[in-house]
Amino acid sequence: MLYIGCHLSSSAGYMAMGKTALSIGANTFQFFTRNPRGGAAKEIDPADAAAFCAMQQSEQIGKIVAHASYTINPCSKDENTLRFARRMMADDLRRLELTPGNYYNFHPGSHVGQGTERGIELITETLNEILFPAQQTTVLLETMAGKGSEVGSRFEELRAILDGVKLQEKMGVCLDSCHVFDGGYDIVAHLDDVLSEFDRVIGLDRLCAIHLNDSKNPLGSHKDRHEKIGLGMIGETALAALICHPKLRGRPVILETPNELPGYTDEIIRLRKYYAQTETE
Ligand code: FE
Ligand code: FE
Ligand code: ZN
């Protein structure tokens, strides 16, 4: 079964997102837990969350992905910025307990001159501070493009973060196709090798979700500019091969392409066709 969907606006709540997803042929989706600028989050309506959990079951919606605000920096050098990030993330995790069993994805952050090693230390500390034994959400580190001083563009860096986390069973990784390509992993010409390396360094059992984006820029460019499926430097064939790969089947696939709903609908239809073909082969 292919679980595929796109990033949706969370302003109208869980049920509204669920309905929108179904209306565009999606069976998963992603949303920001709060205003992407990092501000206050609306309190979740428990009735809306409960109704969505029932809908997730009855409509066979796969695991959904809550995305942390990308402006927080969980490895900031500045004490206040760091404390703010940790408070936001802890609060997100608390609220996500209303929709148990799903994913919370975040960007490891930027070390801004402190060096990758120190960045990794701070991210690990952040996770050890916010994860709690009873939580039912799996927290995902996103593979990054390596723009500026971003941590997490090498599989080894994600491995090092995971190694320092005490509640490791609460952790996973989300592979972003645009980011890994920008990070220098050639998923166009050498997909099998990239997946083998991921498996060797991190373990494919940790790979929980996929962000499917084409890239405006060539391999290794460290730019992080998403493009519509088929219009970028990765291309539709390579992106279809990624989601149809026997080692990756079953993971929720989230489109973060520059689209409105009609564009997403179209991409979902096209990608489902590729998947159906490989299923019957
Ligand atoms: Fe992201
Ligand atoms: Fe992403
Ligand atoms: Zn990106």
Architecture blueprint of SSEs:
Blueprint: E1 4-6, H1 14-23, E2 30-32, H2 46-58, E3 65-67, H3 79-96, E4 103-106, H4 116-130, E5 138-142, H5 155-164, E6 171-176, H6 177-182, H7 191-201, E7 207-212, E8 214-215, E9 226-227, H8 236-244, E10 253-255, H9 261-280
Parallel strand pairs: 1-10, 2-3, 3-4, 4-5, 5-6, 6-7, 7-10
Antiparallel strand pairs: 8-9
Helix pairs in contact: 3-4, 4-5, 8-9
The protein binds fe (iii) ion (2 copies) and zinc ion.
Structure, explained:
The chain is α/β, with parallel strands linked by helices. It has a single domain, classed as TIM Barrel. 40% of the residues lie in helices and 13% in strands. The chain has nine helices and ten strands. It has an eight-stranded parallel beta sheet with strand order 1-10-7-6-5-4-3-2. A two-stranded antiparallel sheet has the order 8-9. It is globular, with a radius of gyration of 18 Å. The model has no long low-confidence stretch (mean pLDDT 96). It binds fe (iii) ion (FE) (2 copies) and zinc ion (ZN). Zinc ion binds next to helix 6.
